[in-house]
Amino acid sequence: MKALVVAYYFPPVGGGGVNRTLKVVRGLAAAGWEPIVLTVTRAAWVQDPALLSQVPRRAPVLRLPNPDWGRVAIRGAPRSAPAAAGGRLRRWLIPDLHVAWSALTVPVAAAMAATRAVDLVYTSCPPYSAHAAGFAARVCGLPWVADFRDAWIECPTRLDFPPWRRRLELGMEQAVLRRADQVLFASEGAREAAVQRVAGLGARSETVLTGFDSADFPDSDAAPPAGRFELVHAGSVVTNHLCETLDRLLDALRSWVARDPGVAADVSVCFVGAEPELAERFDRAGLGSWVRVEPPAPRALLGVRLRRAHACLTLAAAAPYGSEPIPGKLFDAVGAGRPALVLTPGGALARIVRARGLGYAVDPRNTERVVELLAGLRERVLRGEAIPGPSEESRRALSNEHALARVLAVFERALVDSRRRRKQRWTHPSPSVS
To answer: What's the pLDDT band for 189 if we cut at 50, 70, 90?
Structure first.
C-alpha cells in the first residue's frame, strides 16, 4: 500500500511541528507501507538537517517550489520569529501564509489520486491550507485522513483574527471535517469542540496524542546538577503566542527572588531554542543572571539536554484556548523521564498532566501558587532528593509506538470505508438521464 503524506513541515525543517509527521512516515514504512512525502523545497522556519537521516529510504520525498508569502511577511524580522511578523499578509492570506504552496499540492495530489499512484492521502496541519490536497484527492476517489496537530478555529495563535475571518474559516474547517474519511486530533479538547460542530464526526474521528520516540531519549549518564535546581523550557515562545504566560512567569520569578535572594545563586531557568530577543526581556526584569536563553538544540541532542534538567517547563497560551492544545514539549518531558511543570489555565492539558502523573499543572495567574511550587521543588533538590518523573506505565501509554499503532488502525479504517463506498456505487448506480 502507498500513502501520499502532505506536510509543509518536514525535514530538514526542525521544531515541534515536524515530529508527529516524521514519526508517522517512519511508522508507515516500518509497517510495510510505501509513504510518499509531498513537502516544500525551502521553508522559512528553523532548520535541523540532522533529521534527514531519520527519513526512511523507502519514503521518497517530493519537494514543490515554495512561493511562500510567509517569506515576504517576515522580511526584516528576526529569523527566529517568522510567524510573529506576518503583518498584513498574515491578516489577509486565508487560511494561512502557506496557501500558495498548498495550491501547488492540489494538482499533484489529484493526479496521483486519479491514476491510483497511491492508495490513501494523509494531510497534516498546520498549515491548514495543506488540507486542500486531501480534498482534491478525495474528490478523485481516494480515501483521506486529515490530521490536526493543532486545532483550527480554537488555535490560540489565531485569536487576533477579525470575526469575519473566523466565520469564513469555520466554513472551510467544516468542509474538511465533513469530507475526510477519518480525522485525527492531537488533543481531545480540539476533537470535542469539532464534534459539537459537525454531525457524525464522532464516529470518524479519534484523538491520538503525539507521544515521544524512545530513540530520541537514549540512556545516558546525563543527570541534573547537584546543589542547583535547573528548569528547562524547549522551544519558541513568541511565535507560539506564549508571551502573556511568560510575563506571568517572570512576575512569579521576581516575587520569588525578592523574598529569597538566594534563589538567584542556586536556581537556573533556561529557555532552549527560544527567540534571542527574550534575553533582553529577562535582563529588563532583573532576572538575567539566572534566567537565560540558549540556542536551539538539534533533535539528536535535545533529549540529553532535557535529562540534565530537574524538571521541564511548559508554557500554555493564555485563556480561553490555551488550555486545550497538548504541546510536544510535554511528551519530550515524558521521554526524558522528567516531571513537567506546566503553566496552563486548566482544561485538557491540565487533566492529562494530573491523570497521568506527568508532573505539576498550575494556573499562571496564581502567582502565589507558582512561587510555592517552585520553592518546594528547589528545597527538595537542595536536600538531595530526587523529583519523581512519570511512571513507566505512563511512558508506555504516551510512547510513539503506542500512538503509531492507533494511527495505522485509522488508516485501515479509511481504506475500508473507501472500498465500501466504491462497492455501493457499483451496486447502486445512479439512474441514467434520458
So the answer is: confident
Q: Phi and psi (nearest 5°) for 361?
A: -120, 125
**pLDDT of 360:** 97
Asked whether 181 and 418 are in contact (CB, 8 A), the reply is yes
Q: DSSP letter string over 322-354?
A: TTS---HHHHHHHHHT--EEEE--SHHHHHHHH
pLDDT digits (tens, 9 = 90+) for 380-417: 999 999 899 999 999 999 999 999 999 999 999 999 98
**Identity of the amino acid at 306:** L
Q: Which three cell numbers stand for residue 31?
A: 509497517
Axis crossing angle, helix 163-179 with helix 131-139, rounded to the nearest 10: 40
Distance CA 110, CA 115 (A): 9
Q: Are 314 and 342 in contact (CB under 8 A)?
A: yes
Beta strands (DSSP E) in 96-195 are: 120-125, 144-148, 182-185
Residue 347 pLDDT > 90: no
**Residues 121, 144: contact at Cβ < 8 Å?**
yes
At position 27, the amino acid (one-letter code) is G
> What would the DSSP string read from start to end of 363-398?
-TT-HHHHHHHHHHHHHHHHTT-------HHHHHHT
pLDDT tens-digit series, residues 18-47: 999 999 999 999 999 999 999 999 887 888
Question: How far, in whole angstroms, is CA 263 from its chain's centroid?
Answer: 33
Distance CA 57, CA 44 (A): 25
Beta-carbon neighbour count of residue 166 at 10 Å? 12
Tell me: the pLDDT tens digits for 279-314? 999 999 999 999 999 998 888 899 999 999 999 999
Strands 120-125 and 61-64 turn out to be unpaired
Half-sphere exposure of 409 (CA within 13 A, CB side): 11
